[in-house]
Amino acid sequence: MTATRIRRTGRKGRMALRAAGPMLDPCPPGQIGGSYKPLTEAEIQRIHGTALDLLERLGMAEVPPRLHADLLAAGALDNGAGRMLFPPALVQAAVDQAAKTFVLHGRDPDRSIEVGGNRVYFGTGGAAVQTLDMESGLYRPSTLADLHDFTRLQDTLANVSWFTRCCVATDVPDNFDLDVNTVYALLKNTTKPIATSFTLAGHVAPIVRMLDIAAGGPGEFSRRPFLKAHISPVISPMRYGEDAVDVVYACIDHNIPMSCITAAQAGATAPATLAGFLAQSLAETLASLVMVHAIQPGFPMVFSNWPLVVDLRTGSFSGGSGETALLNAASAQLSNWLGLPSGVACSMSDAKAVDAQYGMEKGITSLAAALAGGNLIYESSGMTASLLGASFEGFVLDDEMHSNTYRALRGIEVTEENLGFDAVCEAVLGAGHFLGNQQTHAAMERDYFYPSLADRDAPRTWAENGAQDAWSRARDRARTILRDHRPAYLTPEQDRQIRAQFNIL
Known about the structure:
There is one protein chain. By secondary structure, this protein is of the alpha/beta class. 47% of the residues lie in helices and 14% in strands. It is built from 19 helices and 23 strands. The strands form seven sheets. A five-stranded parallel sheet has the order 10-11-12-15-17. The radius of gyration is 24 Å and the shape is globular.
């Protein structure tokens, strides 16, 4: 058998193996970010200085009594006019003693991730009240069944590193049953790290009982928490929200790590100038950190200064704008400069359909946040219609987009072997090309990501195969996953115990 025949047989074998599943993921989650720095060091210092001035001279209003006492004990000052002032030394102490890294556990330990440093992970968020229906292509109110389906769909997607509810079950009353059934949907359908919101502090302890059942017994969840809470304890501009602060206390009592989210809107609840927005947003998120520090220093908290942009002509939220990309990248840079685990929100397109606008807005915003080094990038999968909608097709398309982003973050490994002096000489003096070269074969599997949804066929082949667009291909993939992937991550006994104690719908 000739060398050419050997090479061809080997190529066919490799193609068959790759079709069955990749041997090596060339772009896994957790790649290194931080190369994009929209702010200079001097600009960071000025924004940070203004944030400290806001906390020291203006301070926070509407401080609940329990938090008021804890803040005073930690070193805050009451100005006598209804505002709590934070001296710079107190803010610095909160930053110094904050958890710089911590583990977001999955019920499956192999799915846990470490948050902080310069690692980048895409995940979900949002509370969409509408779902883009796969049959009609139009929006309808989101349901509890949708939440179950979204959860098991993303369970198969390698680049969704944690799952927060992406939609609200509008067919469940907005009370305790909603919080309970949301968490149940997550427990039943995924073993990734999960996250949820609690409507009221009184809902936390009962739901922890449910989490204990899934974890193996009383107290087991708190020993290794696999759920984190999304809480917005600060209401822009510059005041606390009592119900959310109560949830913070309850989560700390039960060892539930938190993302404390500031979600100011430029030109509405924060300055329209980008620098002014960043200063206020930083001050407000630092106020959340000081709150956590006053309650329990070093408790795990994701520093989540999420910039939200409105179209100042209409007041409509704009999640896919260039300003959103820039502000979220700058927020990630500021958080990383402080050495804190960072969370930002990107890839939340304003498009209603899965179209060119959808792809453009998601690509720009998510890549900017990743390049800037956002540790956790929320809202990054499946969100449409300025966070009002969620799409099954969007989830699978975004997962492939994230692979390309991770490949960009991975960068170029410049080594003696990779520079390929010998390979160039061999090709020039021998076959005259690099096809079949051993280095090419090695690089093919190690350095290149091969999409399964993006179309790279010639136009004629594309037409012969049905001339599908990306939306159609993603719809087919989503339908296949939802048909075939029906996990049962709760045992029958665990499910029985939960249903005996809670109104599972």
